[in-house]
Amino acid sequence: MEINGVEIVDTYCEAFGGYFARLIITAISKDWVDIAAAESTGYGTSTIHCDSEAAIDTYISPEETPDKRPGAALMFFVTDKKKMDNVLLNRIGQCILTCPTTACFDGMEDSVSPEKVFEVKTGFKLKFFGDKFEQKVEGVYPFEAWRIPVMDGEFIVQSQFKVGKGIAGGNFLIMGKDQASALKAAKKAVEAFSTVPNVIAPFPGGVARSGSKVGSKYDFLNASTNDPLCPTLRTKIENSQVEEGENCVYEVILDGATEKAIKTAMKLGIEAAVKVPGVTRISAGNYGGKLGKFQYNLHDILS
Question: Which CATH class for the 2-14+167-302 domain?
Answer without folding.
Answer: alpha beta
